[in-house]
Amino acid sequence: MSLPATHREVRLAARPDGPLTTGHFEVTTAPLPVPGRGQVLVRNRLMSVAAAMRPLPAAVPEALGLPQLRSRVGDVMRGPALGEVIVAPPGTGLTTGALVRHHSGWREYAVLDAAEAPPLDPDALPDPAAYLSQGFTAWLGVVRGAGVRRGDTVFVTGAAGGVGTLAGQFARLHGAARVIGSTGSQAKADRLVAELGYDAAVIRGAAPIEEQLRAAAPDGIDVLFDTVGGEQLRAALALARRKARFAIVGALAAQLSDDALATTPISTLALIARGITLRGISAYDHSDALPTYVREFGRALREGAITYPHTRLTGITQAPRALVELLEGRHLGAVLVEL
Q: For 273-287, what is each residue's pLDDT tens digit?
């Protein structure tokens, strides 16, 4: 196969001080990377963007311990991608043509250590793009974080995002009797109910979240699946039943503000008095659950019990736009870029 001498990458050109724009990125041309010992060359075919990829305005990522937030000016952006192995030297255990998932997206080609790019089973999920869903985070929050069980009333914040659109569906699969989501517009609220099995939705800015949630869940909630924090976490605590379980998988209210370490005041007395469990959960700590998740997700997709809402844009030059539009709330579900 004839390989190009160069490829394109997306670099962070400036840290945002306010809303993120495409001007905070630049698409550059770089020499094609060459694999070394134990490495393979991968042609990226599909990458995803997520709200958590927004570069932070303050130099705090090291304190958070989240590598995906550590973009520095001049760095190539990083994110999940699917790629095809193009060059596989002997001894790597991979063959040309193998499909791999990795975290060196935002570029057309990537050199990967073979140990970090295990081949994917193309038959495990009906659409390989589903390997780029945020379903594992959704599944973990529902199953291990909150332990959703039959009869639960579940509140999912950020329900129209890549995580939330799947979390509500997984909650229903695991027995939830009522699922309520939060989102930013009436149009998305309508789609959550009409297309994704939500029973009701609350809308940021329409009225106080607690007031809307009380109307949607007059008997309270058993589970919070939280990607946002802030006012929505406080509202959930006000409506939490005894022994409620809160799974915290994101903190977008802080991350998308000027202070990524902003705190959410909550009543610890309420946690104690009602026996509420508050648990932060990250996919990095639960890799052992990945095979179980893939089996369940694949089966649910094939049976039509779950859908994977996503939007696709074409071309690496569209990656900055994809992230900006996602943060502006223009899309329902995940946003992918075909390279």
A: 999 999 999 988 999
